[in-house]
Amino acid sequence: MKKFVIVSATWFGTGFAPFASGTVGTAGAIPFFLLLSRMPLSLYLLTTVAFTVFACWSAGFGEELWGEHDSGKIVIDEVAGYLVTMIAVPATWLGVLTGFVMFRIFDIVKPQPARWFDRSLKNGYGVVMDDIVAGIYACAATHLVLRFLP
């Protein structure tokens, strides 16, 4: 179980990056998104919800394992947030890159209520839900940017 949590919470080790582990973890989510993007939207949404629940569980165990809240090693939350960002976004290089940049901006800035989740919930749900909120903002921003780009 411990190895499974390490692999999932660090998203196949990307959380062990020596710096910017959240950015590296988000980049590690791109192949997963490309795989899921072939699904019908309804199945993509269901998979994203199920993955988010799994991410909360994994992040919670990761916190216990490393003994710290929202350890930099835990990046499965970035994966869940990126999947939310990419809802109905085309799997093109422009869509993937725009979603990546928008998610990183909103994940770093943490506009409310993302900041509330980050500061108030000290468990796996708190680790993940701020990224889900950032993903919702980033999804809207990504769609707006892609709509107005040539």
Task: Give a short summary of the structure.
73% of the residues lie in helices and 0% in strands. The chain has 150 residues and is mainly α.
What report would you give on this structure?
The chain has about 150 residues and is an all-alpha fold. The protein has seven helices and no strands. It has helices at about 1-10, 20-35, 40-65, 75-85, 95-110, 115-120, 125-150. Helix 3 packs antiparallel against helix 4, helix 4 (about 75-85) packs across helix 5 and helix 4 (about 75-85) packs parallel to helix 7 (about 125-150).
SSE arrangement:
Elements: H1 2-9, H2 21-36, H3 41-66, H4 76-85, H5 93-109, H6 114-120, H7 124-148
Specify the biggest β-sheet. Answer: none
Q: Give a count of the beta strands, DSSP E runs of length 2 or more.
A: 0
The number of helical segments is 7
Q: Give the overall form.
A: globular
**What are the segments in which pLDDT stays under 50 over at least 5 consecutive residues?**
none
- The averaged pLDDT comes out at 94
Distance between the termini: 48 Å
Give the % helix: over 70%
SS content category: mainly alpha
Question: What is the element string, with H for helices and E for strands?
Answer: HHHHHHH
